[in-house]
Design goal:
heterodimer, A: mainly alpha, Rna Polymerase Sigma Factor, Chain: A, Arc Repressor Mutant, subunit A, 9 helices, disordered C terminus, B: mainly alpha, 6 helices, about 75% helix, disordered N terminus
Chain lengths: ~190, ~160
Amino acid sequence: MNRSANTDMSGLAPFSGFAQIVDARVLARAQRGDMQAFAALYAQFGKPCYGLGLRLTGNAAQAEDLVQEVFLKLIETIRSYRGDAPFGAWLKRMTANAAIDQLRRNKRFVDADPEAMFAGPETEADPAQELDAVSLLQRLPPRARAIVVLHELEGYTHTEIAKLFGQSESYSKSIVARGLQRLHAAVATPQAET
Amino acid sequence: MTSIDPKPGEEVNTILHRIADAQPEPPADLWARIEAAHGARSRRRRLHRFAAAGTLCVALVGAFALRSPRLPSAAPEIDWQARAQALELQLLAIEHDQRAPAATAVAFDAGPATSELAEIDRRLQAAYEHRTYADQLVPLWKRRSELLDALIAARKERLTLTRI
């Protein structure tokens, strides 16, 4: 049976997102600076990269900027990729780092104190999409959203998040706890009894 | 009276999983924009490299010019004004030595040369009055030197003949 490279060990479920396997020839061509190879890598990973960017930033325009930044960096740094980690994991890490850099560059998001971070008014969500997935995440401050997404959705540990943000583990734990608390509160909207 | 949803945690988890499973499509032209940005960045870098190389070349040439000993010019520039003035003094000295001015016409007809010399002097005077650029004066001083050379040669020749 001919099992595609982009399926799991059973040969049935296709790998998706950042878990996809890259054709070694495409990778080699990209490392030689072939733009067509980069176009092939974008065709394969542009979507998961954009998805992660959208989850981390909560904003389509910022997610597009993020993807652009990541792929421009990829073009410049792919020669340094030695294959120690799967390519998708490497790219995912690069995307997360770029999102964190974007948060750092935006001064108003650099609030390291969890208390202060959650002290501000909650972002208004569109009442028509009260429980819409994206609008739910938008109830969190930008930095808290990125931390909650990394921990709850992308599988990052508190240790990893602390390292990425240059903070302590307790900082990461505190943000995640408070973030989830806020999301729970948003979902448990009081309903009028008849 | 209000009631709270008993399982908000589950609902949040469901929503978060929905977010994780979502595969939003990036804009169709995003790769074209990335390629364009890469092209622009490459061009900028090439330009910077070119400018840096140019600056380095200029700096190297400048440093070389400052450090290298000055080579003598192949054809040193002649100060025609100084030369003309020196020749004039020489001519005056020769004329002063001459004992027989009557022989001048026989040995050398200095008329055309002296009249041209007078014309050159007039033009030089006019040039200085009109503040003419120095490089425009050079041909006049050069011609004056040539005429004085000719007059000196003629006077010397006549002096020799007179003494014989």
